[in-house]
Recover the amino acids of this structure.
């Protein structure tokens, strides 16, 4: 029995970019050699700032955009070499939920039609069974049959996101990619949606890839965390390790930057990040983080660090991983986080 | 007793829409003291941005001021003439918005836009105004300000645009700076930089900061006092530590408990059921009652008033003694 549902090896997605007709084609390396695996029934949290390639990664893994190179092994078969029929099957066992529910639901379709679509495409069910399944799924996500005939604009943001989740799970997929599912929602509604997602996961043994820029949300829902910076993975381990014992300066600076909802932590020591993320079109040489890293040395400017196993199941891409200690920055925060 | 810089009294604002009158701000009173950072927290549609826009009288044409007073430095802004207001905006009261892309003019150079502010308010030459603008751009952390001041806004990143806005809005050293979700569109590392910059400028210029946000993390990091808004009303006002340690309103308590950081991973979060109500037809009595777990008969019919429960701690709830 393979426990890994998804294995991704050296995945790359380069977007072509040409400024003028005669200029040389340049590439945006949105995802640049990312490897990871996700165990069945667990959640991988993908964390990063805008431009880190986390959304592209989510789309590429589902082959919603074609990878430039790399391998994606899903449930034992290589997704890169599927024929049309097999690809359709793959689509059936995966689902996706996007950040903005309103723009991901067709405004001309009623909730019933939106949820019927996947059933019509992938199953032989008659209309009665379909309706039964739709109502059952709606109830699972906290809506009811009274919402069947509504259009998306008649629903609140939270309800729209519930419909989007219902659409993603109605075919009982194995893997669901959640791309910032709570970012556009109000705080009180975010908690409802997170509770719903966790509930559905334990009921149906779903495997999640949870993409977010919000570290605290990622910590709450994930078993594993992958921190991305400019298309590269900088740190990858279990949630406890990444939050309890982070080893990459970028991870630590993210943890320092997140506003903590506790006034007592106000004066805490922080690693301050200077400057802004550089353009992914022209990433810095050597370690991509070195221009902003307060710990950068000569070697960081020239040589790109590899993602190496620092301790068991804890991968870090930093030249100075052994020498740096971040204890003083973490003391206050980690006691708060492990509460 | 600290000096009151801004005193809003029983303010009522509605938007005229085709479906009726939306009471975005419905009887809000609040005091902001000189030199403090006051946070207005609330969810989408609770009226916090409308309240902020009303202070410098920047409301859209379909908004109607029904009632109330906004007293700034002893002067009622709601009865002030347009000429008086022009002298106040940018000079005394400045405002930063959520989206820096839409608040900068795309067809003018950044330096020009910043220089316009002192050129309007002070008797200085255009050349002097430009020199001050470049200096201020440097102060807010724009690298090579001399060079970058000649660029157009689209060549700036989101963080740089927000810095330029801050430069523009602080160049006249106003007494009150209103910042409406200034970091919501930015990444966390940039957000931390901008919040730090605002804090530095606040101390350097002795600003009073009115910060509007929905993020309790930001509240905890930068505020002195907090006002929580729900459906057009202020439901609780208190010192930042009080709010986090002993919230007295069920809504405030619910919001703080929603924040994931305090929970064990994968545990169920305390959630507030339902969604915020429509302001076209708000619920009777206490507006929070359909979502409240402490609801009693009194809440359905009688609207709670904002009353003091402790020194500097106001709550609008009939059952605040039961909230634990």
């Amino acid at each position: 029995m393979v426990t890994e549902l998804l294995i991704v090896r050296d995945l790359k997605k380069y977007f072509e970019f040409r400024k003028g007709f005669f200029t040389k084609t340049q590439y945006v390396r949105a995802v640049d050699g990312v490897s990871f695996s996700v165990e069945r029934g667990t959640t991988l949290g993908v964390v990063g700032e805008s431009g880190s390639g986390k959304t592209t990664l989510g789309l590429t893994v589902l082959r919603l955009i074609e990878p430039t190179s790399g391998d994606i092994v899903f449930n034992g078969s290589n997704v890169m070499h599927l024929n049309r029929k097999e690809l359709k099957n793959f689509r059936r066992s995966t689902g996706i939920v996007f950040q903005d529910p309103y723009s991901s639901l067709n405004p001309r379709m009623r909730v019933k039609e939106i949820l019927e679509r996947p059933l019509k495409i992938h199953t032989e069910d008659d209309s009665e069974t379909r309706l039964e399944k739709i109502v059952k799924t709606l109830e699972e996500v906290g809506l009811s049959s009274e919402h069947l005939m509504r259009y998306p604009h008649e629903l609140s943001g939270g309800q729209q996101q519930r419909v989007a989740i219902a659409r993603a799970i109605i075919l009982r997929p194995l893997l669901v990619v959640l791309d910032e599912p709570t970012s556009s929602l109000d705080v009180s509604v975010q908690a409802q949606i997170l509770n719903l997602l966790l509930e559905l996961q334990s009921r149906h043994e779903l495997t999640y890839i949870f993409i977010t820029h919000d570290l605290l949300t990622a910590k709450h829902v994930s078993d594993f965390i992958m921190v991305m910076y400019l298309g590269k993975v900088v740190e990858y381990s279990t949630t406890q390790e990444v939050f309890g014992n982070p080893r990459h300066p970028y991870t630590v600076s993210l943890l320092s930057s997140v506003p903590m909802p506790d006034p007592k932590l106000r004066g805490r020591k922080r690693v301050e990040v200077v400057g802004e993320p550089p353009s992914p079109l022209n990433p810095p040489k050597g370690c991509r983080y070195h221009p902003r890293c307060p710990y950068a040395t000569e070697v960081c400017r020239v040589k790109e660090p590899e993602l190496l196993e620092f301790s068991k199941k804890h991968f870090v891409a930093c030249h100075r991983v052994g020498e740096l200690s971040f204890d003083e920055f973490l003391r206050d925060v980690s006691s708060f986080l492990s509460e | 007793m600290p000096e009151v810089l801004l005193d809003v009294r029983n303010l009522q604002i509605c938007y005229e829409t085709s479906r009726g009158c939306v009471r975005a701000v419905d009887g809000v009173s609040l005091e902001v003291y000189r030199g403090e950072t006051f946070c207005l927290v609330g969810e989408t549609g609770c009226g916090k941005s409308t309240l902020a826009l009303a202070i410098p009288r920047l409301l859209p044409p379909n908004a109607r001021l029904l009632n109330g007073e906004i007293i700034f430095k002893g002067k009622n802004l709601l009865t002030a003439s347009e000429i008086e207001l022009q002298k106040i905006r940018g000079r005394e009261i400045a405002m930063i918005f959520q989206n820096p892309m839409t608040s900068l003019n795309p067809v003018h150079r950044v330096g020009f836009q910043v220089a316009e502010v002192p050129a309007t308010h002070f008797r200085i030459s255009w050349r002097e105004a430009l020199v001050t603008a470049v200096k201020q751009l440097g102060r807010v952390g724009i690298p090579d300000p001399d060079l970058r001041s000649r660029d157009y806004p689209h060549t700036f990143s989101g963080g740089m645009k927000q810095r330029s806005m801050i430069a523009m809005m602080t160049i006249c050293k106003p007494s009150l700076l209103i910042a409406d979700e200034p970091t919501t569109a930015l990444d966390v590392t940039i957000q931390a930089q901008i919040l730090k910059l605002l804090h530095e400028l606040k101390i350097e210029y002795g600003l009073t900061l009115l910060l509007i946000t929905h993020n309790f993390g930001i509240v905890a990091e930068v505020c002195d006092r907090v006002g929580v808004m729900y459906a057009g009303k202020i439901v609780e006002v208190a010192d930042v530590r009080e709010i986090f340690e002993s919230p007295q309103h069920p809504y405030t308590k619910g919001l703080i408990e929603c924040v994931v950081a305090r929970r064990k991973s994968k545990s169920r979060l305390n959630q507030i059921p339902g969604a915020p109500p429509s302001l076209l037809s708000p619920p009777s009595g206490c507006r929070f009652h359909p979502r409240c777990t402490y609801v009693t008969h009194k809440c359905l019919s009688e609207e709670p008033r904002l009353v003091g429960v402790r020194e500097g701690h106001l709550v609008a709830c009939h059952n605040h003694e039961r909230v634990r």
